[in-house]
Amino acid sequence: MALWRQLTRGLRALTRRETVNREAMDEVEHYLEQLAADLETRGLTREEARRAARREIGSVTAVAEQVRSHGWEHTIDTLFADIRFGLRQLGRRPAFTATGGLTLALGIGASTAIFSAVNPILFQPLPYPGADRLVMIWDVTQDGARADVTFGTFRELTERSRTFDAMAVMRPWQPTLTASDEAERLDGQRVTADYFDVLGTRPALGRTFQDADDALNGPQVAIISDELWRRRFGGNRGVVGRQILLDGRAFTVIGVMPSRFDNVVNPSATVWTTLKYDTTLPSAQGREWGHHLRLIGRLNHGVGMDEARRELATIAKSPLEQLPRPDWASLRGGFIANALQSEVTRGVRPVLLAVLGAVVLLLVIACVNVTHLLLARGLERRAEFALRAALGASRIRLTRQLVTESLLLALCGGALGLLVARTATDVLVALAPPELPRLSAISVDGTAFLFAFGLATIIGLAVGVLPSRRASRPDLSSRVQLAAVRVTTHHAARRTLVVAEVALALVLATGAGLLLRSLQQLFSVPTGFNAAQTLTMQVQTSGARFATSEPTHRFFDAALDAVRSVPGVSMAGFVNQLPLTGDLDVWGAHFESSPTQRPNEDRSVFRYGISGDYFRAMGIPLRRGRLLDASDVAGNPLSVVISESLARRRLPGKDPIGQRLHIGPDSGPWFTVVGVVSDVTQVSLAAENADAVYVAAAQWRFADRARWLVVRTSQDPAALTAAVRQAVRTVDADQPILRIATMSQRLDASAAERRFGLIAFEAFAIVALLLAAIGIYGVLSGSVTERTREIGIRSALGAGRASILRLVLREGMTLAGFGIGIGMIAALAASTALTSLLFGVSPLDPATHVSVVGLLLAVAAIACGLPAWRAIRVPASIALTSDS
Amino acid sequence: MDTPNTDVIQGTLDMLILKTLSLEPLHGFGIARRVEQISKGVFRVNPGSLLTALTRLERAGWLEAEWRQTANSRRARYYTLTRAGRKQLDAQTANWTRRANAVARILKTEA
Questions:
Q1: What's this model's pTM, rounded to 2 decimal places?
Q2: Which terminus of chain B, N or C, has fewer Cβ atoms within 10 Å?
């Protein structure tokens, strides 16, 4: 009831302001009249009575105001008034508002976006039930590095381990899906039956794998991702139980994963089938003992990581007689076992942490800038607040006004910041390399936004209320006068801000500079081939006709002849894996003259199976010996061409020509080196390994069923696409031709991601530098401007312009120098932390450090010099009377 | 102190208003007048405080306010005690009496 009254009366006061005001005035006036009348009856004259009544009541308006200021609606009223006034204040200082708003927007937006991207990847638990119990286990090489496990090791662990609830192994699988004429290469995984159980997920449709599916010669079954299901099967629920063609073989779809399933081990996988390895481990030479599997496990409830590691170490040290291990899977080095989360983010962690660090610096710079802006504004308005306090405004009232203004600015900045954060998050996701886990989980993080927004706001509030504290101190009259004289109490705070700002900017700019130089270095890495005028496409063989080597080789040879006869084609060849396509066919290389310790374990060289004029078509230059040619066919001595880096690393000081090596297991035949070619970038520009062996397709142990056709043309390569394709079709129209592109296009695509990354990083660094420069300029120029009057006095007393300029510059540059000193120490520490991210640049790279210091000195000099120059040109008479 | 303090004892204004209005509906000045008269000039009510208190008590539902035409054709705001107001007055009176008696007892005791 009483609440209802409060509400209705308050609303009435808000909506019918005029009436309510009138009523309050009426009531007070009526009181006044009655009082006067009463006094008159006591013998005062009419005039005297009126005067006495007025004296007792005071101002009618003031009393009416007091009466009205009672209800809750009054608080709202004042708030609106404060907001209106605050907006007018902000509007009257567009430069202040724009700088403050944009600074906040960039600081809040950038830090929110980066944290939003980093949080789900590095910090949030993986999106699986009991994700903290998921572990990835590696075999360990002689030099202590992680190595893929063998199926045999996996078998032994599942037999012997008691700390794990379940384990699964997997390997990548890239089948070609053929459906209704359209062939498409998919990313997928071959997994053991327990894979999805270990992750704790199930298909949304159909069933998961069973042990029977994983048996040697078991049925061909596949589970597909939600994305593939919608894209290629129209989201039809009837797909479960249907057959699809993968690499020309029929697979039965048994399940569809839910859309929310995030396959962190291989984020781009869209299809899964079973591994089907022989659990009896028949031969040490079989695939069951190859190091090519990833192993994940789920710990039992209540088992800690340390306990699991201890058990794994014990198992590694104590082989059982009934579970023999070949020498290369002896587990002498033990295991490396870590939480799955830290393993899947191992590659990206340093980059993400560096970016996170940079963005934290950016946020701090933004906060320093805002602090300074508000401090300066407070100084400017000291006279105003002293006046308002003198006119009776309470301290609370003044504080409220300032808080409202600061909040308004923060809200504007925050709203813009949210916009920046959303855009930046989208751009980040678009730019991110596809192998980054948990991309789908990235969205603007509310908590991060609130944190950044809150931090900037709280600082704004704390600094923003300073002027009201000063204004409400006693001795108001002298304040009103003094306010114009700019007492220099703020100088200590200012000096600290300058030093902090310069130091922060230096750290950020140095880090950015080093990373930019790294990217430049990366771009100058030679690819090792000539991309101009080269057309490439993948030709696959499918179906039972190509089950054996003979028809496969025949088909590719015939296709090559057909392509060579196309007008405009000058050179053509086939290769099993093409640089920059993501293909990865790696083998061990075991030289007779410098044997490796565990040859079967070694998978360190790219194996290229070539035919035709592959080297000439790709423009890969010969360094020594000869290229492979028509004499290198089945039945002739086995020849191999190796890359320069392989010759250098494995045959130092020896003539590589004539050396013999095994490719793959020891038991294989010897290949003889006949030539050396230049190194080629296979995976990406940053990957340093270029060790490679080139063998004739006809001399390899099996016939590659999918090969890349490489055509060097005498005219525009893209224009020949149709003719080349047609030529292959005339040989066999049924074989899929995929992934057609010129080599230049591939190079661009591979560099595009980096170039975009470079642009994004450059943008980020420029924004940060800009903020820092604005801040330094603001802080330094503000303190010089404040001294206009002092400068006026000095020049009136006869100081020369040059000496004043020197004085101001010396003071400013001393502060900047302090900042640079502190910043350089911090920058050295920060760049050492960046070492793992740098490429071809030392963290102490003098060019970067010197140019960054120079840049900041220049900014500082301009920031002091400009206002000082302005100040000395102001006539002394004006400077002395100025209040700005 | 040279001039005797005529301020209403803090916290008692509401009670004085309610008590005054329990006799008959009055306007603001009437209430002030009545308090002064009955207290024989010991208490003088500040108009600002009084009018603010009236608004507050009306909001609380203890008073009912209505505009009436006065003899000289001006509008005056008359306040009437409500049932809730009467209850409140009883409660406050009881409370005050209890406390005033306690104070009086303390003051009477010999040191």
A1: 0.66
A2: C
